[in-house]
Write a structure and sequence with these properties.
With 301 residues, the chain is an alpha/beta fold. Helix content is 38%, strand content 18%. It is built from eleven helices and seven strands. Bound molecules: S-adenosylmethionine.
């Protein structure tokens, strides 16, 4: 197939997927935060352990979570990550979301998750088990609001570590979210956000990972629905963090487009993505540190 024909084929197929995603959202609302089926508990454990390992890879060397207050943005269907932070000695974990996907999670799942995570001191693990089974505990909090007003949902608290996974790419206004999280960041706070930049619809994602970038903004936004990927790129996020005063804001790519799809994936993109640097990055982590005297990760109180 010639490159022109392939572009045309992928553009038309991608339009179909944009329409499908829009239709699914209209029919069912925001229901499936990740690819793991709700009933697949083993899959859910594996997914959370994998995310937790990724987040830890991006933490400062020698970090110590003991005594730290952790905020997770948009945990989706599980607060299991919070259980793992508490098991490693974090003082508290609070999660906030726009959709209530984790509110009815069975706390027995947290025990199952901890059984598969052999780390942490005995006393911290026992404290974690107690906290996640106690309703309305400030140390294991959860707040939901359709306005996604981060300071309000954080309830006057501030944090030493702010994390998210597969969330930022869904925010309607990432700069506003970054301004909001900055207001609840303590001096020395560390931010780690795993961001998936590629097309989300399954079939086409494997064949044309940059498909969402093929459409001019008005056409893409014609299919707008809550949670539609916002098409921000790493430099957009880094700029917004830097503008809010975060130091060392950087995006570390984890995966890039497979060499056999590389050329075809960068061809036929719409402005402003055509010819833009870094368009072969599929996902990665955005990290930054809020300036100030805190954040001495090796010496938590
Ligand atoms: C793909 S899920 C990821 C959930 C979880 N972190 C995970 O890895 O499974 C995206 C998350 O972003 C939230 N979200 C979707 N659209 C949003 C929006 N426009 N503003 C704020 N949060 C949104 C969802 O409620 C969900 O928690």
């Amino acid at each position: 197939m010639t490159p022109v024909l392939r572009n045309l084929e992928m553009t038309l197929l991608g339009l179909g997927f944009l329409g499908l995603a829009w239709g699914k959202s209209k029919l069912h609302g925001y229901t499936t935060p990740n690819r793991v089926a709700a009933a697949d508990l083993e899959g859910k454990v594996a997914y959370l352990l994998d995310i937790f390992a990724s987040l830890r890879r991006f933490m400062p060397p020698g970090f110590d979570l003991r005594g730290r207050d952790v905020l997770e943005l948009s945990p989706g269907s599980s607060r299991g990550i919070g259980m793992l932070f508490l098991a490693l000695g974090a003082r508290s974990y609070h999660a906030i979301d726009m959709f209530d996907l984790a509110g009815s999670e069975d706390p027995a799942f947290y025990d199952k998750l901890l059984d598969r995570f052999p780390e942490g001191r005995k006393a911290d693990r026992e404290r974690a088990r107690t906290l996640v089974h106690t309703a309305d505990k400030r140390e294991f909090g959860y707040a939901v609001g359709r306005d996604f007003d981060i300071p309000r949902l954080a309830g006057q608290r501030s944090f030493d570590l702010i994390i998210s996974c597969a969330a930022f790419e869904h925010y309607d206004d990432p700069a506003q979210a970054i301004a909001g999280l900055t207001r609840v960041a303590r001096p020395g706070c560390q931010s780690i956000h795993i961001i998936d930049l590629q097309t989300h619809s399954r079939w086409i994602r494997e064949r044309d990972p940059n498909n969402i970038y093929r459409y001019p903004e008005p056409l893409y936004r014609f299919f707008r629905f809550p949670g539609q990927p916002n098409r921000h790129r790493p430099d957009d996020y880094v700029r917004s963090f830097a503008a809010e005063g975060w130091s060392d804001a950087r995006f570390m790519p984890s995966r890039t487009i497979d060499p056999c799809l590389h050329e075809a994936s960068l061809r036929g993109l719409a402005r402003p993505f055509a010819g833009k640097n870094g368009m072969s990055i599929l996902d990665g982590a955005l990290t930054g540190r809020y300036p100030g005297p805190g954040g001495d990760w090796g010496m938590a109180s």
